[in-house]
Amino acid sequence: MDLRQIKNILKEFENSTVHRLELSNDEFSLKLEKEAKTNNNINSSFEPEVRSEVATKEVALQTPQDEGNTNVLVTAPLVGTFYNSPSPDSSPFVSLNQQINKGDTLCIVEAMKVMNEIPAPVSGKVVKIITQDASMVEYGEVLMEIEV
Description:
Layout: H1 3-15, E1 20-24, E2 29-33, H2 46-62, E3 72-75, E4 80-83, E5 99-100, E6 105-111, E7 114-119, E8 124-129, E9 135-137, E10 142-147
Antiparallel strand pairs: 1-2, 3-10, 4-6, 4-9, 5-8, 6-7, 8-10
């Protein structure tokens, strides 16, 4: 593993909500761990804090920002890398203001070298693409918005 790869791993780890990471092979071993943030209102162990954060994020996504806003938020079903096209030299699955049908592939989230296609939950028009290509996404993170 070269220095560039290690720096990329450190950067991704620092920007993620992952608490602990261990990587090793025959020649190399890397162990990273973050201090858990404590809050007086919850137990100081890391697990309850993560569950609390995820629950808050899910509730926030289900609450419409405007009373008249009927847009559907497409969220990441798992942690991974977001890709808006099947390969770097291909055109994106969807583009802004494009009409889509329920079940159309919107994007891919790669996790553990498995490409997970994310289907459209409804038919409509893509009004926002929030996530940038090849960026890390968390579970429940909003990827795009569809106007029904």
